[in-house]
Design goal:
With 268 residues, the chain is an alpha/beta fold. Helices cover 43% and strands 15% of the residues. Helix 2 packs parallel to helix 3 and helix 4 runs parallel beside helix 5. Bound molecules: ligand LXDSK4UY.
């Protein structure tokens, strides 16, 4: 059973962590930290199918749901990631209801969709050891789509209301860029768009999600009704944590990061 899928369907808050270090070792460490879900990022993390599978194996059986973010909205990749055993998917850059419907079809076997039937040799069915996988798979597949552009905001209800979409994730960094505020998701225009999007998705009866490493904003979005909120990334925790530790023992000049820039608070 996919407890994460059921929790967000009931609009129960689910707290997550973003994984972009792309190692089974760090995935396993984070999976024991107490989060409800974790993203294994194959869009911006240096991941590929074998490495994502190794991370899925490392966290298998734990209480943290692994949500695999695909590199792109591609029906062939959906098939491949489902076949290696990913059951909760996050698909970036969905701008239209047609794109949403295509992703739904990609997760479903005929006659309801176009997912190729190869599970008998795939980890998804545990190599045909899972009874009736072909007819039961859909119950636990959780499809989360990312809206992160002006176009997506214009089509937000149509995307959210698409049958088979289990949740809508707002991508603040890309949304900021498309709204003309590259690198500044904290801009008032972007924040207003995020707040409105959370309300609009909720009005469609669907759970909304986001990634935000700023505690105040994370709590604010949860209060607004966001359900699946990732509150940090493994990369930023490691980078900022090691910088802070070095700074405790090194002189001001020696402690600056190699770039020479002042360490900045990580928002995303
Ligand atoms: O647009 C966004 O923000 C996201 O989709 C999340 C980021 O991609 C994440 O990788 C942190 O930058």
């Amino acid at each position: 059973m996919n407890a994460f899928k059921r929790a967000i369907a009931a609009l129960q808050p689910q707290i997550g962590i973003w994984q972009a270090l792309a190692t089974p070792y760090t995935a396993e460490i984070c999976a024991g930290a107490g989060f409800d879900w974790m993203v294994i990022d194959a869009e911006h993390g240096p991941n590929d199918l074998p490495l994502v599978m190794a991370q899925l194996q490392a966290v298998d059986g734990g209480a943290t749901e692994a949500v695999v973010r695909l590199p792109v909205a591609d029906t062939v990749l959906v098939k491949q990631y489902l076949d290696i055993g990913a059951r909760s998917l996050l698909i970036p850059m969905i701008d239209t209801a047609e794109g949403a419907a295509e992703m739904v079809r990609a997760t479903r076997y005929p006659p309801f969709g176009i997912r190729g039937v190869g599970a008998a040799i795939g980890r998804a069915s545990r190599w045909d050891r899972t009874a009736d996988y072909l007819h039961r798979a859909q119950e636990d597949i959780c499809l989360l789509l990312q809206v992160e552009s002006q176009a997506a905001l214009e089509n937000l209800e149509a995307i959210a209301e698409t049958d088979g979409v289990d949740g809508v994730f707002i991508g603040p960094s890309d949304l900021a860029a498309d709204l003309g505020h590259l690198g500044n998701p904290a801009h008032p225009d972007v924040q207003a768009a995020i707040e409105t999007a959370i309300a609009r998705i909720s009005a469609c009866g669907k759970p909304s999600g986001i990634l935000i490493a700023d505690e105040r904003l994370a709590r604010h979005y949860l209060e607004l009704g966001a359900s699946f909120v990732a509150v940090g990334t493994d990369v930023s925790i490691l980078a900022r944590g090691t910088e802070a530790l070095a700074a405790k023992f090194k002189s001001d000049e020696q402690a600056k990061p190699s770039s020479g820039a002042e360490p900045k608070p990580s928002v995303y």
